[in-house]
Specification:
Helix 2 (55-62) crosses helix 4 (86-107) and helix 4 (86-107) packs parallel to helix 5 (126-145). This protein is an alpha/beta fold and 305 residues long. The protein has helices at 16-26, 55-62, 76-80, 86-107, 126-145, 169-176, 183-197, 219-223, 232-238, 242-247, 262-268, 276-286; strands at 7-11, 31-36, 46-49, 65-70, 111-115, 148-154, 207-211. Strand 1 (7-11), helix 1 (16-26) and strand 2 form a beta-alpha-beta unit. The chain is 41% helix and 12% strand. It has a domain at 7-167 and 180-211: NAD(P)-binding Rossmann-like Domain (Rossmann fold, 3-Layer(aba) Sandwich), CATH 3.40.50.720. It has twelve helices and seven strands. Strands 3-2-1-4-5-6-7 form a seven-stranded parallel beta sheet, sandwiched between helices.
């Protein structure tokens, strides 16, 4: 195994994902540091208050690092709400990603994890287009600078406790219902990617890995969805929660969209833990309030730059 990285820089490290990821890194001998325009919830973490568009500040933040986890981005929610325009998306997601990889190359950093998105399947949207550009930058630096690069493509994973996006747990549950990934599983995928990059196992090409959630539904279930009537497939797996789901406005007849993450499991040992059953258990226990978020979680938007 390679020597475990000392300092690991998280861009956008004050956001929701980093709040889950940083404790895992600390517990496993990584030394996370953060660059963001707002401070992280863990005040003991080394912190550079700056945007990744500030190249001078970025150069200082990457100094001494052995790995970068590049999270900072505007996301699909910002496009949907028209909170940022094409210039904003290009500046942060395209130019910002270039800045991060170029700063890494100049600092001699060889281990990179890039958070992309399944929105690359929407290539003409503001968000999806810039993630395609980001992935191409990541590939170019793998070949040009001999970097070890893992690109992760998670589904949308804004957590239920982010009150600027979801007014309550039920609203989040309706989004998750059709197939999604929990932020804890995305954190797992990032952490296991970091372990993969330090394993000493060669990376013969840049890896691009889909990150989806866990499912009780089988491929046969999905192929023969509700053949015995609306809600019948749901009842076969989650009959005890049927009344709870209906009472809270969830539709048991809606067929989820399941993605293939077998390569992600093969390459990094990813095993998602949160499924529709997890959601239903939480719904039955906590109701519309949902389970508590992590200690110190913010109710303001934590998409960071």
């Amino acid at each position: 195994m390679d020597k475990m990285p000392g300092k690991v820089l998280l861009t956008g490290g004050a956001g929701d994902l980093a709040q889950i990821l940083i404790p895992e890194l600390l517990a496993n001998d990584f030394l996370p540091s953060v660059i963001d325009v707002r401070p992280p919830s863990d005040k003991a973490i080394a912190f550079t208050e700056a945007s990744i568009l500030d190249r001078e500040a970025l150069d200082k933040a990457v100094a001494g690092c052995e790995m970068i986890i590049h999270i900072a981005a505007w996301h699909g929610i910002h496009d949907f709400r028209k909170e940022h325009d094409a210039y904003d998306f290009w500046d942060l997601n395209a130019t910002g990603t270039f800045n991060v990889f170029e700063a890494a190359a100049r600092a001699g950093i060889k281990k990179m994890i890039f958070l992309s998105s399944t929105s690359v399947n929407e290539p003409y949207g503001l968000y999806g287009h810039t993630k395609i550009i980001g992935e191409e930058i990541a590939r170019a630096y793998y070949y040009r600078h001999d970097m070890k690069v893992i690109t992760l493509r998670p589904r949308a994973f804004i957590p239920h406790w982010n009150a600027t996006v979801y007014k309550n747990y039920i609203e989040w549950a309706k989004y998750f219902w059709l197939g999604a990934v929990h932020i804890n599983d995305v954190s797992q995928a990032v952490y296991k990617s970091a372990i993969r990059l330090t394993s000493g196992k060669p990376l013969n090409e840049p890896l691009t890995l889909v990150v989806d959630g866990a499912y009780e539904y089988t491929s046969d279930d999905l192929a023969n969805w509700d053949k015995d009537g609306p809600g019948s497939t749901f009842k076969r797996h989650y009959g005890q929660y049927y009344d709870v789901a209906v009472a809270d406005g969830l539709d048991p007849s809606l067929r989820p969209n399941k993605l293939d993450h077998s390569l992600t499991t093969k390459e990094i040992g990813y095993k998602p833990e949160y499924s529709l059953k997890s959601l239903l258990e939480e719904l039955a226990k906590f109701g519309a309030a949902g389970p508590p978020g992590p200690s110190g979680s913010s109710v303001v938007a934590k998409t960071s730059v």
